């Protein structure tokens, strides 16, 4: 029994006279993304601690699949801060004289990947001590958007919505009315702490400017919206106008298509006519053939004219025929030209007319 008591006293004295000790307690720290986290680690030494001073910070990532990583080290009066690539250039000792008992560090420009358990180890033989700090990186609410989901008309149902672009949970919401009565409608009170306010049977008294504030443990952000409840619009007139507009557009499209088709048909017709003229039209008649046709037409005209104007017309018509274009029929050199008698026109009710004959020299007898 006495021996056991002696052992307990020896252990108590040894613990009481233990050398190196870290005075900073274990703790949890929450910081916002992009901020700087201060991780304290202060220690005291005793005269028994005569060995070299070594300080080591390790990170146990939140992902349990990763092993502990040394992020910064002090040994042999030198600092080594390039062990961990993800924190390279972002972790520093806060004191320029680590032997004074301050091994605290700063982690700047915090990222979500920095979440984890940080462990401070201090060694100065024979003393050894360590402490752990849990770091949580949160995202402040930002990019808050306020808007009305629905038609802002009297008698309608719609919703007022407040949506943050980012922000770590949990989030708290608070709605306020900034104009008119400065009070939210009584029916909205149950929703004033939620991201959505459901509006039923809207009236003009709901009009005004509203704000929504979103908060979490590391920050807050706010947005505003203007609610303007108006009388219902003339939907029938709007629909009629839309229908008329569509019909006019269809008519215009039809006219454009018709004009295009018409123009194509005309171009096609011109090409076909031009092709026929070039390939299908026979060559023009000779001058002699033209003269025969001219005389034949005069003979037919003479048969239908009255005796009173027969003589003048006959002279005029024959005088108009060029002598060089008149085709002379072949005649025998020994025979006299025959006279051609006019048909018996008396039976037809017309005066007989003698058709002049040609002499050998081409003159009219």
TrEMBL record:
<feature type="compositionally biased region" description="Polar residues">
    <location>
        <begin position="287"/>
        <end position="309"/>
    </location>
</feature>
<dbReference type="GO" id="GO:0016323">
    <property type="term" value="C:basolateral plasma membrane"/>
</dbReference>
<dbReference type="InterPro" id="IPR036179">
    <property type="entry name" value="Ig-like_dom_sf"/>
</dbReference>
<feature type="domain" description="Ig-like">
    <location>
        <begin position="141"/>
        <end position="228"/>
    </location>
</feature>
<keyword id="KW-0393">Immunoglobulin domain</keyword>
<keyword id="KW-0325">Glycoprotein</keyword>
<keyword id="KW-0812">Transmembrane</keyword>
<keyword id="KW-0677">Repeat</keyword>
<feature type="region of interest" description="Disordered">
    <location>
        <begin position="322"/>
        <end position="341"/>
    </location>
</feature>
<dbReference type="InterPro" id="IPR013783">
    <property type="entry name" value="Ig-like_fold"/>
</dbReference>
<keyword id="KW-0130">Cell adhesion</keyword>
<dbReference type="Pfam" id="PF07686">
    <property type="entry name" value="V-set"/>
</dbReference>
<feature type="domain" description="Ig-like">
    <location>
        <begin position="18"/>
        <end position="136"/>
    </location>
</feature>
<feature type="region of interest" description="Disordered">
    <location>
        <begin position="269"/>
        <end position="312"/>
    </location>
</feature>
<keyword id="KW-0472">Membrane</keyword>
<dbReference type="InterPro" id="IPR003599">
    <property type="entry name" value="Ig_sub"/>
</dbReference>
<keyword id="KW-0965">Cell junction</keyword>
<feature type="transmembrane region" description="Helical">
    <location>
        <begin position="239"/>
        <end position="260"/>
    </location>
</feature>
<keyword id="KW-0449">Lipoprotein</keyword>
<dbReference type="InterPro" id="IPR052307">
    <property type="entry name" value="EJ_Adhesion_Regulator"/>
</dbReference>
<dbReference type="InterPro" id="IPR007110">
    <property type="entry name" value="Ig-like_dom"/>
</dbReference>
<keyword id="KW-0564">Palmitate</keyword>
<dbReference type="InterPro" id="IPR003598">
    <property type="entry name" value="Ig_sub2"/>
</dbReference>
<keyword id="KW-1015">Disulfide bond</keyword>
<dbReference type="GO" id="GO:0005923">
    <property type="term" value="C:bicellular tight junction"/>
</dbReference>
<dbReference type="GO" id="GO:0050839">
    <property type="term" value="F:cell adhesion molecule binding"/>
</dbReference>
<keyword id="KW-1003">Cell membrane</keyword>
<keyword id="KW-1133">Transmembrane helix</keyword>
<keyword id="KW-0675">Receptor</keyword>
<feature type="compositionally biased region" description="Basic and acidic residues">
    <location>
        <begin position="269"/>
        <end position="282"/>
    </location>
</feature>
<dbReference type="GO" id="GO:0014704">
    <property type="term" value="C:intercalated disc"/>
</dbReference>
<keyword id="KW-0597">Phosphoprotein</keyword>
<protein>
    <submittedName>
        <fullName>Coxsackievirus and adenovirus receptor isoform X3</fullName>
    </submittedName>
</protein>
<keyword id="KW-0796">Tight junction</keyword>
<comment type="function">
    <text>Component of the epithelial apical junction complex that may function as a homophilic cell adhesion molecule and is essential for tight junction integrity. Also involved in transepithelial migration of leukocytes through adhesive interactions with JAML a transmembrane protein of the plasma membrane of leukocytes. The interaction between both receptors also mediates the activation of gamma-delta T-cells, a subpopulation of T-cells residing in epithelia and involved in tissue homeostasis and repair.</text>
</comment>
<dbReference type="Pfam" id="PF13895">
    <property type="entry name" value="Ig_2"/>
</dbReference>
<keyword id="KW-0732">Signal</keyword>
<feature type="signal peptide">
    <location>
        <begin position="1"/>
        <end position="19"/>
    </location>
</feature>
<dbReference type="GO" id="GO:0034109">
    <property type="term" value="P:homotypic cell-cell adhesion"/>
</dbReference>
<dbReference type="GO" id="GO:0005912">
    <property type="term" value="C:adherens junction"/>
</dbReference>
<dbReference type="InterPro" id="IPR013106">
    <property type="entry name" value="Ig_V-set"/>
</dbReference>
């Amino acid at each position: 029994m006495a021996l056991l008591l002696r052992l307990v006293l020896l252990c108590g004295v040894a613990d009481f006279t233990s050398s190196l000790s870290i005075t900073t307690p274990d703790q949890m720290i929450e910081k916002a993304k992009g901020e700087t986290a201060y991780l304290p680690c202060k220690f005291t030494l005793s005269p028994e601690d005569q060995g070299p001073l070594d300080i080591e910070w390790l990170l146990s990532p939140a992902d349990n699949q990763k092993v502990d990583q040394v992020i910064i080290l002090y040994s042999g009066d030198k600092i080594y801060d390039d062990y961990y690539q993800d924190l390279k250039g972002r972790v520093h000792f806060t004191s320029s004289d680590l032997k004074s008992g301050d091994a605290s560090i700063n982690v700047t420009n915090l990222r979500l990947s920095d979440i984890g358990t940080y462990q401070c180890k201090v060694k100065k033989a024979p003393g050894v001590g360590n402490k752990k700090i849990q770091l949580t990186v949160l995202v402040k609410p930002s990019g808050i958007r306020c808007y009305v989901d629905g038609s802002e008309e009297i008698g309608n149902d719609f919703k007022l919505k407040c949506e943050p672009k980012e922000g770590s949970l949990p989030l708290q919401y608070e709605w306020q009315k900034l104009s008119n009565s400065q009070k939210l409608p009584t029916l909205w009170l149950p929703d004033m702490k939620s991201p959505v306010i459901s509006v039923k049977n809207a009236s003009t008294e709901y009009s005004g400017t509203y704000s929504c504030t979103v908060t979490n443990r590391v920050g807050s952000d706010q947005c505003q919206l203007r609610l303007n409840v108006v009388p219902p619009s003339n939907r029938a007139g709007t629909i009629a106008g839309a229908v008329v507009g569509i019909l006019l557009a269809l008519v215009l499209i039809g006219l454009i298509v018709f004009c295009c088709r018409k123009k194509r048909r005309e171009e096609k017709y011109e090409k076909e006519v031009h092709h026929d003229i070039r390939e299908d039209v026979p060559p023009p008649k000779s001058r002699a053939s033209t003269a025969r046709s001219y005389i034949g037409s005069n003979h037919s005209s003479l048969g239908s004219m009255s005796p009173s104007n027969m003589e003048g017309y006959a002279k005029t018509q024959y005088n108009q025929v060029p002598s060089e274009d008149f085709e002379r029929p072949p005649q025998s050199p020994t025979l006299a030209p025959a006279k051609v008698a006019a048909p018996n026109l008396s039976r037809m009710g017309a005066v007989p007319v003698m058709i002049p004959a040609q002499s050998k020299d081409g003159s009219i007898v």
